[in-house]
Amino acid sequence: MKKKKSTQRILIEVLGLLFGLLWLSPFYLMIVNAFKTKLEIFQDTLKPPTMWTFDNFKQAFEELAFLQTFMNSLFMSVGSIIIILFFSAMAAYALSRNGSKLSGAIFFLFVAAMLIPFQSVMIPLVALFGKADALNFYGLMFMYLGFGCSLSIFLYHGALKGIPKSLDEAATIDGCNRFQVFWYIILPMLKPISITVAILNIIWIWNDYLLPSLVISGAGTDTIPLKLFLFFGQYTKQWHLALAGLTISIIPVIIAYLIAQKQIIKGVSDGAVK
């Protein structure tokens, strides 16, 4: 029996190692080829570069106007996350504390909205809003609220089920109104799930190309994914610069994830199990 268990454990560990290597392979290809010349990439993609140089990173940094582009992406991502966290938490609190059938139906609509692909609403969205200058970053933030609130409300709703209603009642007796109960009592207790919601949303918002390309049109307002598209022309593709730019652009998200990974795991379990 012990031999059987040990064999199963070894098999699971080997499979886990293989899946881990498979998951890491795109990062290996991106980082290794970011240090190569354009010719070396086409000669052998898997082979490490003959000479490690940072020339690609310097050129990509300059051509991307990285500091300005980074600040554009940061402003848009952080602003979108704040809006998503605030409105999603309030909506989930109202839906979880109100036990009516209408609240259940509204929550079901939010959950069902997660199944709607962006491509199905892309054309009506552009037809309604187009590339109006008034939209730009602020309009884009509220669009991200619409696309990101479904999953966020679902996670918040699950976490709120683990917070007893007696806390609301005690705070109300002490003189708090409904918003004060939410802001001072409930929201601080949602810190783990809030970090989870923030990271899950910032990953796709930071890397999003399609929606900003449809909305943003002003000069100097490009985000990192939009700017990276400059390396892919009609007749030539500068893979060495594109991969160097991609390597630079993912560093902030990876750092944020590594810092908050424990809170993310705790938040997902709180939001999904309870």
Structural topology:
Elements: H1 2-34, H2 38-43, H3 55-63, H4 66-97, H5 101-113, H6 118-129, H7 136-160, H8 166-173, H9 178-189, H10 191-207, H11 210-215, H12 224-228, H13 239-273
Rg, rounded, reads 23 Å
- Estimate the strand proportion: under 5%
The succession of helices and strands, N to C, reads HHHHHHHHHHHHH
How much helix, percentage-wise, in residues?
over 70%
Q: What separation lies between the terminal Cα atoms?
A: 35 Å
How many strands in all? 0
Family: Belongs to the binding-protein-dependent transport system permease family.
Keywords: Cell membrane, Membrane, Transmembrane, Transmembrane helix, Transport
Protein name: Raffinose/stachyose/melibiose transport system permease protein
GO cellular component, one term: plasma membrane
Descriptors for this entry?
mainly alpha; 13 helices; globular
Structure description:
This protein is mostly helical. The protein has one domain (55-273): Orthogonal Bundle (MetI-like fold). The chain has 13 helices and no strands. The protein has helices at residues 2-34, 38-43, 55-63, 66-97, 101-113, 118-129, 136-160, 166-173, 178-189, 191-207, 210-215, 224-228, 239-273. Helix 4 (66-97) packs across helix 10 and helix 7 (136-160) runs antiparallel to helix 10 (191-207). The two termini are 35 Å apart. The mean pLDDT is 84. It is a multi-pass membrane protein.
